[in-house]
Write a structure and sequence with these properties.
Blueprint: E1 5-6, H1 8-17, H2 20-33, E2 37-40, H3 45-57, E3 62-63, E4 69-72, E5 86-90, E6 102-104, H4 105-116, E7 124-132, E8 141-147, H5 150-159, E9 161-162, H6 164-168, E10 176-182, E11 199-203, E12 208-212, H7 217-220, H8 222-238, E13 241-243, E14 245-251, E15 258-264, H9 271-275, E16 281-284, E17 288-292, E18 298-302, E19 306-310, H10 320-326, E20 332-335, E21 338-340, E22 343-345, E23 359-362, E24 365-368, E25 387-391, E26 408-417, E27 426-428, H11 432-440, E28 443-445, E29 457-459, H12 472-485, E30 491-496, H13 513-524, E31 531-533, E32 536-538, H14 541-551, H15 559-566, E33 568-569, H16 570-585, H17 592-612, E34 616-617
Parallel strand pairs: 1-2, 2-7, 4-20, 5-6, 5-11, 8-10, 10-12, 15-26, 26-30
Antiparallel strand pairs: 3-4, 7-8, 7-9, 11-12, 13-17, 14-15, 14-16, 17-18, 18-26, 19-25, 20-25, 21-22, 23-24, 27-30, 28-29, 31-32, 33-34
The chain binds sulfopyruvate and manganese (II) ion.
Manganese (II) ion binds next to loops.
Length: 623
Amino acid sequence: MPSWKISPSDQAKIDELNNPKLSKIINDAAELMQPDEIWVFTDDPKDAEKIRLSAIEFHEEKNLAIKGHTLHYDNYDDQGRAPGQTQVLLPPGQKLSRGLNYMEREKGLKEIFDIMKGVMKGHKMIVRFFCLGPVNSQFSICAVQITDSFYVAHSEDLLYRGGYEQFKKLKNKDDFFYFWHSQGELLPNFTTKNLDKRRIYIDPLENRVLSVNNQYAGNSLACKKLSLRLAINKAHKESWLAEHIFISAFYSSDKKRKTYFAGAYPSMCGKTSTAMIPGGTIVGDDIAYVRAGSNGEYRAANIERGIFGIIQDVNAKDDPVIFDALMSPKEIIFSNVLEKEGKVYWVGMGDKNFQYPTKGYNHSGDWEKGKKDVEGKEIPLSHPNSRFTLRLEDLSNVDEALHDPNGVEIQGLLYGGRDTDTSVPVAESPNWDHGVFVGATIESETTAATIGKSGIRASSPFANMDFIIIPLAKYIENHFKFGKLLKKHPKVYATNYFLKGADGQWLNSKLDKKIWILWAEGRIHGVYDAIDTPIGKIPKYEDLAKLFADTFSGRIYSQQEYIDQFSLRAGKYLEKFDRMEKLFKEEPNMPQQFWDELNAIRAKVKALKEKMGKDIISPFELK
Ligand code: SPV
Ligand code: MN
């Protein structure tokens, strides 16, 4: 007799799927983690409501003053993805690229199974089914989440499409991802206690991830970054791509043209705010599966149906659509923000006259202004990686194609990092391979979404580095190869919102990104000429001046601003290419196209620098 309870109706839900592998997985999970009870959920909205209420009943979330709003906390030291405790389990002898941990599969399984043994004692084991991607779509993958966290299950309900009915239709009954998660023992404040035993182990051989002693969504939510890792492995074998990209439609100023863009940006580099540029419509802000369409077009489908977004600096001026949504009654989970009397507050939510509370409760417990952590650092009012979770359909700018089983055709691809001293705000790649090189060489300062030091320059190919569980060279090669499957290549744009001038001041305002996107939109439709430079095609002054004036009610864009922003910092670009050469030389079997691009661009930048006899070349001299 099993030691756990399961009601006949919950057992019937499992039996109805008639899937021996699935039944075994559920049984094995219970045998290992020993919950008191198993609760099984279908796609029925009543089930979702039960999960939402349970998250409150078991204190993983609390109600806020506005209807539908709840608040969740993660442990003070569980506020971001934990690469140090994340391992990919590989057969003996297999290796991964720089920065990614891997260990021998058998050893890793033994270690994590030991930690997971009995970890659900006294807890309920939740079984949920999801569809990663639109239902009834060739893009999509079925997934089963097993967890003892109602916060995790609730978040996934906002973020993913129900998959119970999809499981019934599975052609190959073994073809799904599965995830076992436990938040582990909890502290009196209902956050994970044993962070020293936090583990996130990815097991590509079994298409599963095992995750224990954590709550932060990037570690716990199976369908998010855990499934992205498995999808990259699967995509690699099946000639499609699993990307860390947003999808949005942007429109010409007369609204006559609608063009879908996708974009890859590492955490905290403006991805969500690009996806949410006022005037556009959004399909997704984080992860998409990409396939070549029947006409050779680049098609992408959002695997999610919600947003787990960074809340810091979301305010009425910079992110009006999200801000409005966050202020009105609807289902929203806030995490790791400050609470006072049922209201939540976060850094950057108001203008300079806004009265922030000086006391309240946040991820550090009772908080008052000036409170310091154990290292003596002041604890901000909200964590820089504090977040909101909501359904895209609750946003006023949701795109009509959100659930289209065919995905959408992408005509523009945007890549960007956090780069204060090198790249121009926008440059168009002359061809696909150049674009792959741009994506492969994204660099960014590290941010608070990853536990560890912030502010160090890190390379993150396609903003996907943390999730590439196949050799990096293979992943990059797949992008070059994918270009061969396409007949209509999207135009690729390198963007940079973080450029600073010699005085250390930002050269752009936050809203300027709209101009770069409108320029790209116009380029795709043949509206603007461009200046050819060794690093790609850059905008002409007149076009930008008109775009700034038309978009921002007559704002004057000066020639000096243009010169400061679009001068080619040749010396800095050459430094970047040298950094990239050194880094990628360590990768065995890098595709030759990568080196061809690097060598060709570098030679052109060098030649230009020598011809002009200077390090920084004004765009007016490049005409
Ligand atoms: C990101 O950091 O890219 C996120 C949040 O989307 S996380 O779930 O932590 O990956
Ligand atoms: Mn992300």
